[in-house]
Amino acid sequence: MNIKGKIAIVTGAGSGIGRETAIELARHGCLPILVDIDEDRLKEALVEVLKHAPDATGELCDISKDTQVRQVVQKTTERYGRIDILVNNAGIMIVKLLDELSADEFNKQMSVNFQGGVNFILAVAPIMKKQGKGVIINVASVGGRLVVPGTAAYAASKAAFHAFSESLYYELKDSGIHVGIVLPGGTRTGIFDSTNTKLGKYYQSQCKTPPAKAAKAIRQAIEKERFVTVTPSSYKLLIEFHDFFPGFFSKQLLRRLRPYFK
Ligand SMILES: NC(=O)c1ccc[n+]([C@@H]2O[C@H](COP(=O)([O-])OP(=O)(O)OC[C@H]3O[C@@H](n4cnc5c(N)ncnc54)[C@H](OP(=O)(O)O)[C@@H]3O)[C@@H](O)[C@H]2O)c1
Question: Fewest 10 Å CB contacts: which of 11, 67, 191, 211?
Answer without folding.
Answer: 67
